[in-house]
Design goal:
alpha/beta, Rossmann fold, two-stranded antiparallel sheet, globular, binds zinc ion
């Protein structure tokens, strides 16, 4: 059984849906981004320069929302996406402290993905054709300068492809990289979506996927009879989730052909870039889902 270990994932609790809404509605297809500019992705730390007014506005808002997070002082962090050096703030209900960059708004999973992209000082996405589903603002701003960047979503306006992730009108083997953060748990038929992601990847390409996982369960919990927002909230921790993945999430991906590996940070890097003080957020990886074969 190709399970994810408990340490490989964290529960994204009820906060996930609310966090996602801050990025725009999650849907079963990627997001926007119209035409991208014609530059390559900038190096780490320069994707979005810190903006003093934005930082102060977010700090004041965070203080008014949950002042206890500032009790006893805050430890400065470094955002690898925008190079903000200072405190990070809470998000979610109940609040998860030190999760959101006060400048670019990125959360732990976005910073972790950015660290994967820029690991070793390079840029793994340079020259790659990218399809980004349900694009989050912080990542979209950081990635959209890549000339091969495309976005997709079922509902968001201004995306490159307004599509259903389970029925992509895209040719086989089109993309080098597909990104979908917290998308699959919103999709009725997630296995069909996984098959579509596999299909549109070129041989040798990689899908970077994250979902909320309950590490206390081996098997994914889902029930198609649970359809109301209230029941979904009660069963799946969010009103628009279709399931609560267990440690067998990787099995679903390998069943459609993916080869799975994980990327995580060292504890020191985690402290510096991706605090996530809540234990459930510690040491969560990016799931690298590779379609075997030689890249062309
Ligand atoms: Zn930032």
């Amino acid at each position: 059984m190709n399970t994810i270990s408990a340490a490989d994932h964290s529960i994204e609790a009820s906060a996930s849906a609310k966090l996602d809404r801050e990025d725009g509605p999650r849907s079963n297809a990627g997001g926007p981004v119209g035409s991208a500019s014609r530059q390559q992705i900038r190096p780490a730390g320069s994707a979005q320069p810190p903006h003093r007014w934005t930082i102060w506005r977010r700090l004041v808002s965070a203080y008014l929302r949950d002042r206890s997070q500032f009790t006893g002082g805050k430890v400065p962090r470094v955002c690898p996406i925008c190079d903000h050096r200072g405190v990070m703030i809470s998000v979610g209900h109940p609040p998860r402290w030190d999760a959101r960059c006060a400048n670019c708004g990125s959360r732990e999973r976005h910073r972790l993905l950015w660290l994967w992209i820029t690991e070793g000082g390079g840029n793994r996405l340079a020259g790659k054709r990218i399809l980004h589903f349900a694009p989050e603002k912080a990542l979209r701003r950081a990635l959209r300068d890549n000339r091969e960047y495309e976005s997709a979503d079922l509902h968001q306006p201004h995306v490159t492809h307004q599509v259903d992730i389970t029925r992509l009108p895209l040719a086989d083997g089109t993309y080098d990289v597909v990104i979908a953060n917290h998308v699959l748990e919103h999709v009725d038929d997630d296995r069909q979506a996984m098959q579509e992601l596999f299909r549109v990847l070129r041989p040798g390409g990689t899908a970077l996927l994250t979902v909320p996982v309950n590490p206390s369960r081996q098997e994914t919990y889902e029930d198609p009879a649970i359809t109301t927002p209230a029941l979904r909230q009660a069963h799946f921790n969010a009103p628009d989730h279709r399931r609560f993945y267990g440690l067998d999430f990787a099995d679903r991906l390998t069943s459609v052909g993916f080869q799975i590996s994980t990327f995580r940070m060292s504890p020191a890097e985690d402290h510096r870039h991706c605090p996530g003080l809540h234990p459930r957020r510690r040491q969560r990886p990016v799931l690298q889902c590779r379609r075997s074969g030689q890249q062309t």
